[in-house]
Design brief:
By secondary structure, this protein is an alpha/beta fold. 39% of the residues lie in helices and 18% in strands. Strands 2-1-3-4-5 form a five-stranded mixed β-sheet, sandwiched between helices. Helix 2 links the parallel strand 1 and strand 2. Helix 1 runs parallel beside helix 6. It is globular.
């Protein structure tokens, strides 16, 4: 029943658990199953969603594809996309989201890839750069829903937390989004 949740003992930040709770409630009400592909968040979105009892009726799968090889092997992101645009790009995030839909029965998938830091950034993609993509089953694959955000001066943990919160927001049904 949406909105009726037991108190959860968690190590995760309360705002992350509350965002996951909202995603589960909204998607349960909409009859949708969700899945994620995570790189820089390292499974944080999946952890938040599965932190709540009963999440299995909404959460389909989570892929942690940290390396480019994992993105290629598990989600079928092409080497050309990775070589041309890099792992932190709209093209890669979009390919990751499409790969999740191809590998699962989820209705909606969100992908996250970025530079959490403290190293690894560049002038074009500084530390804190994160790219998100959302793909929905049955939608036109050429209709790309992706965005790039920069979480400057957030530190590694802050970048990962803000990225996870953004990804959860993208998993909200469009009619239920704030």
């Amino acid at each position: 029943m949406p909105g009726v949740w037991p108190v959860v003992d968690t190590l995760l930040p309360p705002e992350l658990v509350e965002a996951a709770r909202a995603v589960l409630d909204a998607n349960r009400a909409a009859g949708r199953r969700v899945a994620v592909a995570e790189s820089c968040t390292g499974g944080l979105v999946s952890a938040a969603l599965t932190e709540l009892p009963g999440s299995s009726d909404v959460f389909e799968a989570g892929f942690v594809t940290y390396s480019n090889a994992a993105k290629q092997d598990l989600l079928k992101v092409s080497a050309d996309v990775l070589e041309t645009f890099g792992s932190v790009s709209i093209a890669t995030a979009w390919s990751m989201a499409q790969g999740v839909l191809a590998k699962t029965d989820a209705d909606v998938a969100v992908a996250i890839t970025g530079v959490a830091g403290p190293g690894g950034g560049s002038e074009r993609k500084p530390v804190g750069t994160v790219v998100f993509a959302r793909a929905e089953r049955g939608s036109d694959p050429s209709d790309v829903h992706a965005e790039r955000k920069t979480f400057a001066d957030a530190g590694r943990g802050g970048v990962r937390l803000q990225a996870a919160l953004c990804a959860l927001e993208l998993l909200m049904p469009v009619s239920a989004a704030p």
